[in-house]
Amino acid sequence: MAAKTHDEPRRLSLTGTGATGGGSYEKARVLGDAVVHGSLDCVQLAVTGTMRVHGELNALKASITGTISAEGLSIGRLRLTGELASRDAASVRELIGTGSITVQERLHVDRLRLSGELQAMSCDASDIHLRGKAAVPGRLDAGSIELQLYGDSSVGELVGDRIEVSRPAWWTRLFGIFFRPSRQARLSAHHIEGAVVRLEHTRAHTVRGGSVTVGDGCEIGAVEYTEELIVHPGAVVKERRRI
Questions:
Q1: What pLDDT does 18 receive?
Q2: What mean pLDDT value characterizes the chain?
Q3: Burial group, residue 54, by CB count within 10 angstroms (0-12, 13-18, 19+)
Q4: What is the 3-state secondary structure (H, E, C) of the chain?
Q5: Does pLDDT of 176 surpass 60?
Q6: 172 phi and psi, to 5 degrees?
Q7: pTM score of the predicted model
Q8: The organism sits in which domain of life (predicted)?
Q9: What is the Cα–Cα distance from 26 to 37, expressed in whole angstroms?
Q10: What mean pLDDT comes out for the span 17-23?
Q11: Cα dihedral sign for 172, 148, 74, 83?
């Protein structure tokens, strides 16, 4: 691997295959397969290939095409095409991408736009739009949550101001080359709560909200609502309570 650093401002350029130490840089660029021993701090990060950071990763702006992993990470704006993994908590102000995100602890993100797979122990956000599937055994909490089910998903608690869960339109299956939606995709959750809740193909123990719509393919143990409840003929709700 060729590794070059430049002072005033410091820049890191890694090309090929190999390893380097961590540090603080204005710009860091990886083209190839790199291992960073120690924490890496930079204003701008660009990765094409694979980067493994044995420490913390901190960047104001990052563009990832490939695979990146770190002990923990904090990124301002992230553009992702590929895979991102954090063995500890992760914080991203804005994340837009295609691929998979795996966080073994808590994920905090202000704005998430992802086509792919989200895995985290828990997640809190201002705005989430996910086309794909999710596995969050703890609490998924956001102001606005829109989940289009491309595969089976599971969430412990789903909480937000506005929640919408649906399957994508049938015609998307005709054009899905890399990530084709499943006809049987379903969300499983213990508890769902929001001011406005719109559900399709969801199995939940309890749902609580102001205006609640239980759509086709849903199986709900109990619904508690304050304003309005609409239940599709193809849905099952065992208990209904206006509170």
A1: 87
A2: 93
A3: middle
A4: CEEEEECCCCEEEEEEEEEEEEEEEEEEEEEEEEEEEEEEEEEEEEEEEEEEEEEEEEEEEEEEEEEEEEEEEEEEEEEEEEEEEECCCEEEEEEEEEEEEEEEEEEEEEEEEEEEEEEEEEEEEEEEEEEEEEEEEEEEEEEEEEEEECCCEEEEEEEEEEEEEECCCCCHHHHCCCCCCCCCCCEEEEEEEEEEEEECCEEEEEEEEEEEEECCCCEEEEEEEEEEEEECCCCEEEEEEEC
A5: no
A6: -65, -25
A7: 0.90
A8: Bacteria
A9: 18
A10: 93
A11: negative
Q: What pLDDT, on a 0 to 100 scale, did the predictor assign at position 15? A: 94
Give the per-residue pLDDT at 179: 56
Which residues have CB under 8 Å from 194's CB, separation 6+? 145, 158, 159, 160, 161, 162, 163, 209, 210
Amino acid (one-letter) located at 15: T
Q: How far is CA 110 from CA 65, 115, 128, 155, in A?
A: 22, 17, 8, 19
51-60 confidence digits (pLDDT tens): 999 999 999 9
Query: At residue 43, what is the residue type?
Result: V
β-partners of residue 155 are 136, 189
**Cβ atoms of residues 61 and 95 within 8 Å:** no
**Beta bridge mates, 21:** 37
Residue owning tokens 């840089």? 25
